[in-house]
Design goal:
The structure holds 2 protein chains of 2 kinds. By secondary structure, chain A is mostly beta strands. Chain A has one helix at about 15-30, and strands spanning about 55-60, 105-110, 120-130, 150-155, 160-165, 170-180, 185-195, 215-230. Chain B is mainly beta. Chain B has 2 domains: about 1-50, no CATH class; about 50-290, no CATH class. In chain B, the strands form 5 sheets. In chain B, strands 3, 4, 9, 10, 11, 12, 17 and 18 form an 8-stranded antiparallel sheet that branches. In chain B, strands 1, 2, 6, 15 and 19 form a 5-stranded antiparallel sheet that branches. The chains are: A mainly beta, B mainly beta.
């Protein structure tokens, strides 16, 4: 809304209908849309502001553990997960190339119930483990195949933020983004995409059991969302 | 506080400056407006009294040695016996101290904690060589096997808090975080790593691909360089919880393991020794106490 500056009356002026109509419209609009120039200063403090009036916070997990999910896999990526029969005991039950050939996978979905429209800030923090040993290829005759655990956050199916991801065997990460979103419950998806196997990747070990080799894992994951309303 | 109501303006009725001025004056009188009169974007900082509508408190401390370059470092020894002894980052002088009364986090609040620091792991040789953890027997392309490590080993930094008193003599891991002190060898389940930061302990690659697909017979072991690591933790207690201080501790080296269907980090004493250690420099530890809505 604008200041009340539609018309300034002057002596001996000829009044025209549009001038009065403009004044009236400005007057009426003020009834329902007072803006910050007309709202009294220093009016609000924690004692007279209702819950979620200005902001709202969502977190994954529980009061005793902020990580997503529950039970023995709390905080882990579980939608692509090796079976114990194929696992070396000194690796995680996690992503293998026998189970994963590429593409985005959703590790976790958080629904922001009661979002009232405004600015949304989302954070995702955790650890990523990858097996980076086979980044070079056949005597360098082929392009190298650097391994990344790529990460992105989608809100309502639209990417809010995406990053190249971690490249070391054990790494901590934090990815966060923000944007303006309309009112309504929002579905936020936390997704990963690991580099597919190159030409020379060893995907099993050479032991008698030919265990499948763990290629990547996400663990210690937790998410936070903060909405700012005005 | 009432909603402001003025006589409406009817069609055909005369309108003059007094009508409009009265209405304008009504809207501008202090204390005469409530939420029913407000439109979108009608509240900003000038309308707010005090500073605890969203953020209740915040605090930050320089973490570690206090030196950004690498002229002064804190060295964390690798454990040769189980369990590892956690070393406080900064040696006790760079913890977050919330004072005599502490911070009381209520059920409607959230405590957000963030930290970062410069880290460099050192290792000499290949103490992790076969038959140790992560030693993979990879097809060497000539009918045999080649020892290549999976490098799923790491140092751990985790967050602790003191909920006892302001003397800060009773730090324990925050809820959702293991202390890595139980088991033989000591371990921590991944489902209890809510406030963990990891630093890779060592790294080696297949030097280049073998002519036989899925095989290798050469490796390159890389010296790890300085790098920044960071962590975050969010605490939403079900009841009131007073916290007097926060600190970060570091320990290692751990390796990936599983027990049944439970993934864990297990202390890896076979690689412990004076030539394996972690160096830390400076970073920061910050906390924000805010309302959840």
């Amino acid at each position: 809304m604008k200041y009340w500056t539609e018309h300034q009356a002057r002596q001996n002026q000829t009044a025209e209908a549009d001038q009065l109509n403009a004044e009236m419209r400005a007057s009426q609009s003020a009834i329902t849309t007072l803006d910050r120039t007309q709202t009294p200063s220093r009016q609000y403090d924690p004692t007279n502001v209702g819950q979620y009036a200005l902001h709202q916070v969502w977190t994954s997990g529980t009061s005793s553990n902020p990580m997503w999910g529950s039970g023995t896999t709390q905080g882990e990526q579980t939608n692509v997960r090796m079976d114990t029969a194929n696992n070396r005991g000194d690796q995680f039950l996690a992503i293998t190339y026998q189970l994963y050939s590429g593409g985005w996978e959703t590790a976790y979905t958080e629904t922001l119930t009661g979002f009232r429209g405004g600015h949304l800030h989302v954070e995702w923090s955790g650890q990523a483990s990858i097996f980076p040993a086979f980044q070079q290829t056949d005597n360098n005759n082929h392009p190298p195949n650097p391994k990344y655990m790529r990460l992105r956050i989608q809100v309502g199916g639209v990417t809010m933020v995406e990053r190249q991801g971690t490249a070391k065997s054990m790494a901590s990460f934090r990815i966060f983004g923000g944007g303006l979103y309309p009112q309504g419950d929002l579905e936020v998806q936390f997704q990963w995409r690991f580099t597919p196997a190159g030409q020379d990747d060893a995907i099993v070990d050479n032991g008698p059991s030919t265990f499948h080799l763990m290629q990547a894992h996400l663990w210690g994951n937790k998410v936070l969302a903060i909405a700012r309303y005005k | 506080m009432s909603r402001i109501i003025q006589d409406r303006i009817d069609a055909g009725e005369s309108i003059d400056a007094t009508d409009l001025n009265n209405r304008y004056t009504a809207y501008n009188q202090p204390g005469a407006l409530d939420v029913a009169n407000h439109g979108a974007a009608s509240i900003d900082l000038p309308q707010v009294r005090g500073n605890q509508l969203i953020t209740v408190d915040s605090k930050r401390v320089v973490l570690g040695t206090g030196v950004w370059d690498h002229s002064s470092v804190q060295s964390i020894p690798s454990a040769t016996a189980s369990p590892a002894t956690p070393a406080e980052v900064g040696g006790g002088s760079t913890r977050l101290d919330f004072g005599l009364t502490g911070w009381t986090i209520t059920s409607g609040d959230i405590l957000r904690v963030y930290w970062d620091i410069g880290a460099r792991p050192y290792i000499t040789g290949r103490p992790y060589a076969t038959p140790n953890l992560g030693a993979l027997a990879i097809d060497n392309g000539a009918g045999g096997s080649f020892d290549l490590n999976d490098c799923l080993a790491c140092w751990v930094l985790h967050l602790e808090m003191d909920t006892t008193d302001a003397t800060l003599a009773n730090f324990v891991p925050v809820p959702g975080q293991t202390d890595f002190q139980t088991g033989t060898p000591a371990f921590g389940n991944l489902s209890q790593t809510a406030a963990t930061t990891v630093v890779p302990a060592y790294l080696e690659y297949s030097a280049e691909g073998n002519a036989v697909e899925g095989a290798t017979n050469a490796r390159t072991t890389l010296d790890m360089r300085w790098g920044g690591v960071s962590g975050a933790y969010w605490f939403t207690p079900s009841g009131s919880q007073t916290i007097y201080g926060l600190r970060i501790v570091a320990h290692g080296i751990y390796h990936a393991k599983r027990s049944g269907t439970q993934n864990r980090l297990e202390l890896y004493t076979a690689v412990g020794g004076v030539t394996q250690y972690l160096e830390l420099t400076q970073g920061q530890l910050s906390a924000v106490h805010m309302r959840r809505g």
